[in-house]
Amino acid sequence: MRQSDGIDAIPPSAVPGPGPLPLVVDLDGGLLARDPVADVLGWGSRHQPVATAHLRWKVPGRPDLAAGTLVRLYPAARLSLRVNGEILDLIATHRRCGGEVTLVSAAPAGMVDAVAHALGLSVWVYGSDQDGRFTPERRALALASLFGHRGFDYAGGRADQAPICHVARRALMVEGEAGLRAELRTAGGALVRLGSPVWQVIEMSLQDLAGVTAASGAAPSTNRRLSAAIWSAAGAPVTPAADPGDWDVDSALSGRRLRGR
Questions:
Q1: Is residue 69 part of a domain?
Q2: Do 50 and 119 touch, CB atoms closer than 8 A?
Q3: 128 lies in a domain?
Q4: Second label for 86, Cα 20 to 30 Å away, from 56, 185, 224, 248?
């Protein structure tokens, strides 16, 4: 079940208050072994190579859109996704302590919805939409705007997620490079290396992903509403646009809330 989108469709922890800092979890290489888009496209390359190549040709630079089309075209196919059990435990502990959890990914927001629903997670989710990809750079700017600089903890797993690490209070990483650790220490942040992943496997059909993706496609006004919500909760960006709806970072941002089953 999803909370309706709108001006209040942002984590309540974006507004300062008591309790733990928000925990932001990256789906791509953090909670999952890799971006679910890569799993979908990998299936397509093995089983429907012509269709997959054609879709990628039609939307160059947008693998998320190609994957979103594949899940609708081949709903009976199944994927095995590897889930990091340690990060699942981290999410559960944070929720028990009264903290809010936000799940982010470069995958379409609907796919992120589907994975969270399959895992029974009560989290806020943000992902790519029709307007653009939710890249690590865009995630970093959006999260700093929602929660403030050093206003959240981050659990991730890939070196290309460094921009997010730089705006988090702590970066809890599956892969922790020495260079990034030194950079964060110098800048006032911290990197904590998580233990070796204990993988759990979940099976999902492409129909599961397709159904949620189709039902939760971002309406044209979603980005404008989210921009206004960030503006209201976190204050204007350093160089504000004339209209919060024109703020560039949110051209790739869509979000919605899931309740646990």
A1: no
A2: no
A3: yes
A4: 185
